[in-house]
Amino acid sequence: MTVTTLLPDPSTPLSHESAAEAFAAILDGTVSDDAIATFLTDLAIRGETSIEIAEAARALRHRMIPINGPAGAIDVCGTGGDGHHTLNVSTAVSLVVAASGVPVAKHGNRAASSKAGAADTLEALGLDMGAAGALAESTLNDIGIAFLFAANHHPAMKRITPIRQRIGRRTIFNLMGPLANPARTTRQLIGIARPDYATVYAEAMELLGAETALIVSGEEGLDEISGAGPTIVVPVGMAMADRIVPEDAGLTRHPISAIRGGDAVHNAAALRALLRGEKGPYRDAVLLNAAAALLIADTATDLRDGAERAAEVIDSGAADRLLDQWIAYA
Predict the structure, then answer these.
(1) What is the pLDDT of residue 21?
(2) Is 193 annotated for ligand binding?
């Protein structure tokens, strides 16, 4: 590798141009590993701006391997790293929303800080992740759901991963996944584990041209809409209250501990039971987040309507059948 680029001083906020140049150099490998580690650490200590987040995402988008998806496709995912180790809520939500007729391009990965990421749990359910990745464009267009395994679509991240592991703390790249969906979705429900960053993140999404989105963060630092209490909400391109609670969707509150997950086999069993009609805290968490996703997709009129629609999809068996169809397709 030839090192030719010097990174800017991150002690003060970067302009669009300097941020774009910095992240192009980082992803193209024209700067040393030590310089990248120092830059990302200093940026995290100072606090990333919406411009820096947007330009990092734009640089990653320019280098990703994209797919073509149907109009109106959405993504439902979190930035991860919330430390609560819950069951796979966004994965279940993706199946419920897709079974409602809204195409879902689920961007995800294997577990980083949790015991079972979306890919781990889906694999334990019987989905061949290699085939699911290779056929992602086909399944998204044919049956309305796809899993876009991040490693397959972001080769530029291969070099960055060990540097991030060496740093050992959150950096701007912990925020990138939802902003670089290979299907180029412009409608998203994004959970972020840092409530204080919700507004900054929403501003970055606006800079990136998002059509309709909700940035959500449970007040306990949960990277999804919390079934335990208030959730901070920052809307993009739509009207929404700045805080919501489960009762807004006609649902009961449950402590976060009630949806604590385990390994991939444990989480897969819980997800399958949910899709087959099992009631309880996990179902309520999924209904709450699915309701918000259906609002973003302009399929529900409010959270209560969205939760009722999601419950009908589960109880009809449509989401469970979709999972079986996906497994058989891949």
Answers:
(1) 97
(2) no
